[in-house]
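Reviewers of the previous submission asked for a worked example of the structure-prediction workflow described in the proposal, so we include one complete record here. The input consisted solely of the amino acid sequence. No template or homolog information was supplied to the procedure at any stage.
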Amino acid sequence: MRTYVRMIFQSEGAEPRTVLKLMHELGFEESMGMHDFVYRWKDSVNFEQVLTLVSNLHAKLKGLHVSFEVTTIT
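From that input alone, the workflow returned the following structure tokens.
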């Protein structure tokens, strides 16, 4: 499974390199194309585990004025 994140930055928000560092701390890698980051799950996961990851992402980005969209594919 993979969880993809697409970012939308605002000119008054956090600098993209700051966001990159936070995404790495959460275990995401950069991705080119339609999505900006990917989290590669090692094993099969359930909805609750994905929700926990997204909640952690939300907490890390809170206050940085960065919008994001999440897609998880099995």
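The domain at 2-73 is CATH 3.30.70 (Alpha-Beta Plaits). We consider this example representative of the routine output the project will generate in years two and three.
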